């Protein structure tokens, strides 16, 4: 198991005090929250491509950097970063060649069934008002998806007026970042 190797490494990491180089407080230095995809190619590339150091931002991730509902867990995390951790900017960052752009929900459901998830479970979800295909559907273009997520955040009734919300797309092969949307409103002082 990989976890055993990681835990062994951690013992040495702590014993050697390698954590000291990462010490920071809980308030992000750049007063920013970054919402991005869980893509493994971005773990080191994204921070390096945007000069983000440990302690600079709050980082929130999910599959595809997708927000569909105004009160999902991502929005809650963003609002906590704003109200409790002094974030003043939100940056939504998607990436080209995202796995969520080609999710075949029927294939995904078949794979779940092959792993033992029963038809009764899917029926129970449906009965509870959960549309499996709608929940797991990805997006057609990353640009449209990022624009949608940015719009949901910008229009949120609990978002303070001084908070800026931007949308970017990164190339996971080169680190090149393209702007989808920059919040051009005048940054106002907090009330």
From TrEMBL:
<comment type="similarity">
    <text>Belongs to the beta-class carbonic anhydrase family.</text>
</comment>
<dbReference type="GO" id="GO:0008270">
    <property type="term" value="F:zinc ion binding"/>
</dbReference>
<dbReference type="InterPro" id="IPR036874">
    <property type="entry name" value="Carbonic_anhydrase_sf"/>
</dbReference>
<dbReference type="InterPro" id="IPR001765">
    <property type="entry name" value="Carbonic_anhydrase"/>
</dbReference>
<keyword id="KW-0479">Metal-binding</keyword>
<dbReference type="GO" id="GO:0004089">
    <property type="term" value="F:carbonate dehydratase activity"/>
</dbReference>
<keyword id="KW-0862">Zinc</keyword>
<feature type="binding site">
    <location>
        <position position="37"/>
    </location>
    <ligand>
        <name>Zn(2+)</name>
    </ligand>
</feature>
<protein>
    <recommendedName>
        <fullName>carbonic anhydrase</fullName>
        <ecNumber>4.2.1.1</ecNumber>
    </recommendedName>
</protein>
<feature type="binding site">
    <location>
        <position position="98"/>
    </location>
    <ligand>
        <name>Zn(2+)</name>
    </ligand>
</feature>
<feature type="binding site">
    <location>
        <position position="95"/>
    </location>
    <ligand>
        <name>Zn(2+)</name>
    </ligand>
</feature>
<dbReference type="Pfam" id="PF00484">
    <property type="entry name" value="Pro_CA"/>
</dbReference>
